[in-house]
Amino acid sequence: MTETVSGAGADAATKGQGKGLTMERVFSTEGVHPYDELTWESRDVVQTNWKTGATVFEQRGVEFPATWSVNASTIVTTKYFRGAVGTDARERSLKQLINRVVEQYVKGGVEHGYFATKADAEVFEHELTWLLVNQYFSFNSPVWFNVGTPSPQQVSACFILSVDDSMDSILNWYKEEGFIFKGGSGAGLNLSRIRSSKELLSSGGTASGPVSFMRGADASAGTIKSGGATRRAAKMVVLDVDHPDIEEFVATKAREEDKIRALRDAGFDMDLGGEDITSVQYQNANNSVRVSDEFMRAVEEGTEFGLRSRGTGEVIETVDARELFRKISTAAWECADPGLQYDDTINDWHTNPETGRITASNPCSEYMSLDNSSCNLASLNLLKFLKDDDTFDAELFAKAVEVIITAMDISICFADFPTEPIGQTTRDYRQLGIGYANLGALLMAMGLGYDSDGGRSMAATITSLMTGVSYKRSAELAGVVGPYTGYARNADAHKRVMRKHQAANDTVRTLHIADSQVHKLATAAWADVQKLGETNGFRNAQASVLAPTGTIGFMMDCDTTGIEPDFSLVKFKKLVGGGSMQIVNQTIPRALKKMGYQPESIEAIVAYIAEHGHVIDAPGLKTEHYEVFDTAMGARALAPMGHVRMMAACQPFLSGAISKTVNLPETATVEEIEDIYFQSWKLGLKATACYRDNCKVGQPMSSGKGENKGTDSNRPAATDEVETKVVEKVVYAPTRKRLPKSRVSRTTSFTVGGAEGYMTSGAHEDGQLGEIFLKLGKQGSTLAGVMDAFSIAVSIGLQYGVPLETYVSKFTNLRFEPAGLTDDADVRMAQSIMDYIFRRLALDYLPFEEREALSIYSADERQRYLETGSYEPVEETGGAAELVDTPSVGRDGGSSVGRAASEASVVETAEVVETHDTEGSNQREVPAQRDTSGAHTSAELMEKITGTAVDSPLCFTCGTKMRPAGSCYVCEGCGSTSGCS
Predict the structure, then answer these.
(1) Does the annotation count 347 as an active-site position?
(2) I need a labelling partner for 242 at 20 to 30 A (CA). Which of 94, 338, 634, 643 fits?
(3) In angstroms, rounded to a whole number, what is the distance separating the alpha carbons of residues 660 and 664?
């Protein structure tokens, strides 16, 4: 028996230190194959590009369990089935896919002495198969792509490269990166060894500096990306904060964003995928600055900081630390790059410091380890471990982790790697990356707010248990097949980090029975880690990360990806036989039941959420329970620091880091980003990235119009029943409410981008806007005529009851010339005249609550936010006239303040829109102004409901608007990702 490792590790593996693992049967049933416990059905998978209508994939008669959603089966069929479509070689059943992978794992385990007996190997096979087919976990995408096929058996998705200060090394970097991108994976590296442009070459000339070499690597990645790889090229480029070229690096992508704006304004196609976007550089990489504790203390104290020569290490320039920190934050505010990686924190938790420092990460920042290394990932579906009494089954979770870690380690025995240095380091250190998905859905189902002490305690204990059990199994494996090759020289450091994890576990303060039970098991696991590690050592240098889980999250039918909260409360579900329907997140009724609500109240709350997309003012819902239903976007979007605090709760229990971007509203300031970066350092995170809505131009946007169509998205299992309210279809004829002969009006002069105009608006007696007149251009000109016609059309619509907020949501953010600075203190910048006009009308006629939902604030309100942290006025006042009603929720989900007070006027202006399932039997009322018929994914649905844009790119495969997943994006329609899995 031989193992594909070298040195001491090979000897230990060959000789063996035990008799192999004795596998316990926990999930599967003896004498019954896991497949035989499920009902299987045949499905047709046909995938089209929603924008073009072209069929991009078709395979009929594929076999999946009835419990798998249509979306999950579509994604697995299109992404993971191997063989040419239309031939007998093509896989057509989930059984074939899982067998192909599991059989290779069992074979590798048997060949390398992992199991005590043949019967133990069979138990392992059945347990692994059961967990996969029942969607309890999934390996990362490369496993499904490659294992068991004639292709190289690459199992890793994450790679870290290295580059030295020589032309040979730089050119080798280009080559190695190219091979990794060709296979659909991503890589990261640190460029700080390359001397700066302020240093001399040995020949006496001046060095080019690392930023110049980034251009070539970026062009290479862009070329390979367009060549049709499985996923686009994904890169991470890191530079140390003490590098003399740090300021140039920081400004790199921000300057390119300025170029994008200038070219866009000149008429070039600068959307993501546009024909002119390729002229812009540095767009294929995520940039991060490696900051040290020394630098962050200098920022805190307001002192100077030294930039050091790459050759001698001497300080060649000093800068103001706070000024540099401000430049980093400003660039992130402008274009979302760079993020920060906290070098001393990362290396303080490093198990292999005697081998080398951790200098970089993979593109999504969750895998951090030695240069020239890789990590294979797997993620558990947390919601599967929620018991009927809504407590977390920690014992079952721990058993699943043991099986999965065993399989992940076996994969390194037979895996292939893109380069020999990567293969050697991986075989010598055997880094693993177990993680989880569906945390947001789990917390909601348990009645715990994502941004709450209870939610963070639950997440921390689960993460601690996962990593503790992983290292416990790693120590057990070391007793069977030997520790990793590099363990001997790093034993003291490795055991020190294990003690740090255990100490962090001891500081967790549980708040309820559920997290106490998990914490008790985690504490026992860490005690076993210390005991077994002292005796056996460890099989793996690293064990856990929290990855984006984009495509595999959909494969497992997860509502939420990675560590993320729920994206929205309303979603789309594909139906067997074709079509889709809008549903309310199925964890919501479970959460309401957990919190003690009766069936009648649950039905009313769910119906309200279906109509409005949020829980604010939901009938019978207590305000103290609102936080349970906070989401990534919408009316109850989580505060940015809520994301940071959740990451901080879980970070001490991870070998690596967390793939997550902290999303901020468009109104966020540079100071807010500074605070997030600074607090992340204080709270012990290893990496942080920020994204401010609409900060990037070079990607397709819906402009709040919901005009980007997409394919139907996934959602809960196909057998799930959806509770919908059946109502009679009633059609109300609209009536026109004319303005009185004499009415209050106001005239506003304005300038947008140098173009002057006038707007006159008239109101009803109750203050509701009823008409507008726009004066632009000379009388008799085409522009003046178009504006007159537009004014008449909007005025008639207002008088027939179309709410002003509907017009505002449709016409704000429209982009065309003239655009730019205005002379209005409340609206300093406008993307077009229409954008300005409807922002002004919103400020004049809409109450604060409705404007807040549209992110439209006056200058005084923005100033109040800077001073008090709240936009809300102390005492609410009306716009053009005194308010005549107290706020109440109307049929459209907005406040009825400033509108006609009578219910009759609301009824008169409403339409009833039917939505059907495949039987056509279910109907429910949807106000016309909240029509969601044009949406085909959850992201587009939220755009329709909220009237604001989801700042995400479109999927290249199917045209669907993607949604955030960690620090990447994932397509709900086909499972494609923006570079991570």
Answers:
(1) no
(2) 643
(3) 13
Q: Which residues pair with 435 in a beta bridge?
A: 379
**HSE on the CB side for 157, CA within 13 Å?**
35
Pick the CATH number of 162-348 from 3.30.230.10, 1.10.3210.10, 3.20.70.20, 3.10.450.50: 3.20.70.20
Which listed residue (158, 335, 364, 980) is catalytic?
Answer: 364
User: pLDDT, tens digit, for every residue of 247-266?
Assistant: 999 999 888 888 877 887 78
Rounded CA separation 971/938 (Å): 10
Using pLDDT thresholds of 50, 70 and 90, give the confidence band for residue 296: very high
H helices within 63-160, ranges in order? 70-79, 94-111, 118-133, 141-146
Q: What is the mean pLDDT of the chain?
A: 83
**DSSP for 271-323, written as a single string:** STT-TTGGGS-STTEEEEEEE-HHHHHHHHHT-EEEEE-TTT--EEEEEEHHH
Residue type present at position 90: R
Instruction: Name the DSSP class of 93.
Output: B
Active site residue 650: no
- Establish whether 362 is a catalytic residue: yes
Out of 362, 381, 536, 714, the active site residue is: 362
| Distance in angstroms (rounded) separating the CA atoms of residues 892 and 801 | 12
Tokens of 950: 């989801």
Sign of CA dihedral 887, 889, 894, 898: negative
Report which of 365, 375, 369 is spatially closest to residue 356, judged by C-alpha positions. Answer: 369
List 366, 476, 672, 861, catalytic entry: 366
Model confidence at 914, pLDDT cuts 50, 70, 90, reads very low
Cα gap 136→666, rounded to integer Å: 37
Separation CA 616–CA 621 (nearest Å): 9
Single-letter amino acid, residue 621: L
Q: Is the pLDDT of residue 295 over 90?
A: yes
pLDDT in tens, 503-525: 999 999 999 999 999 999 999 99
Domain boundaries, the chain: 162-348, 745-908
Dist. CA 584–CA 724, nearest whole Å: 9
How many of the other CB atoms lie within 10 Å of CB of 425? 27
Contact criterion met (CB below 8 Å) for 762 and 743: yes
